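Researcher: Next entry: Large ribosomal subunit protein uL13 (Oceanispirochaeta crateris).
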Amino acid sequence: MKTIFVKPQEIERKWFIIDAAGQPLGRVAVKAADILRGKTKALYTPHQEVGDYVIVVNASDASMSGKKRSDKMYYRHSGYLGGLKSENYEKLVARKPTAPMEKAIKGMLPKGTLGNKLFSNVKVYAGADHPHAAQQPIKIEM
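Model: Predicted structure:
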């Protein structure tokens, strides 16, 4: 079996839109990460950027099962001693509505320069409006 090498000019990129309203946050993130990686294409190569662009709308309306809205914690560190900050899902959504979806998608992408490049191909919006109508995105049903 030979490794597929695809030239960047030969890759056909499409735009997809996912409506996260009422959908579980993790399931939306998995679908977005698969499309970003290019795992839905026959030309998938793990070390190349062959994926498509993804728009996630209504990210603040994604659902969480059980008591995760109040119990799930998000952590960040300032870099200084004692600089660990934590907040739960409800407070994070109130402060920055797109952050939980962005963190979930970024955590499912590879680490390093490839993951950073792939993450720049996802656009997350808290509401239903987005400025990418000119790209004619294809709606993904969940």
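Model: Note for the record: Residues 77 and 84 are 4 Å apart (CA to CA).
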